Amino acid sequence: xxxxxxxxxxxxxxxxxxxxxxxxxxxxxxxxxxxxxxxxxxxxxxxxxxxxxxxxxxxxxxxxxxxxxxxxxxxxxxxxxxxxxxxxxxxxxxxxxxxxxxxxxxxxxxxxxxxxxxxxxxxxxxxxxxxxxxxxxxxxxxxxxxxxxxxxxxxxxxxxxxxxxxxxxxxxxxxxxxxxxxxxxxxxxxxxxxxxxxxxxxxxxxxxxxxxxxxxxxxxxxxxxxxxxxxxxxxxxxxxxxxxxxxxxxxxxxxxxxxxxxxxxxxxxxxxxxxxxxxxxxxxxxxxxxxxxxxxxxxxxxxxxxxxxxxxxxxxxxxxxxxxxxxxxxxxx
Length: 333
What we know:
The chain is α+β, with helices and mostly antiparallel strands. Helices cover 18% and strands 38% of the residues.
């Protein structure tokens, strides 16, 4: 009797608490899951009632077996089909993520091989169908400097919602292109989206032949091999001493007699189209900068390297952060 009383009190307490919750919030606060705690005492009362009815005989176990079979059957044939496990769509960790949605597709990740002028690049995309499409034309483009189309392919696809696939596209690159970090675009014609970057390297290594040799090493990462000077334009010849993850900014500063800044030209090499983060160790790169000069003399031109985000400069072996190219009263304007 005591066991029955405690089970009845448990059920009553749970439902009274639920009613109190409903009255405190509103009737929308009623949720069946809040009454799950009453399942145990109700089950105990049902088992006790069936035991009494069965008189302690073996037939007592028949409903238990039936209810157990019903519970397992619900899991296998009702709940499992209603909540299927989603497809696992996880590109390898090393693959760069794009996370771009275009034309009813999620572009989860993209890999692109490096290319050269007149060669090819291969773009592989991890795609997930968000909307069903039939016979949808899709393009892949490689854009270079000033939006120049360096390569393009187009194909027609159909897909279903939830479909996963990984197409590859081979793009021929035009021969008349300079080294550049380009952009890969993907989508239907006229609605392309940026999904990745690609490096187009020079077909042949640049043979450095500067008019003036410098040989200054900045932080063990970049070497200023030398420079050319012609009518207010200076071409700097750089060599990567090691692979770099950062995009360094190079500068040419024109200093007056009091070391004041009379003119300057700061920027990533080749206007940011071929940044230092894509240079290979040992690679030579030419970078031309225009200098706007006044009439004041004498002037000195110095060169240095820094990170734009922090302003931190790379140092030379002697601890200074710039190297003198020349004084302007020593050369023709």
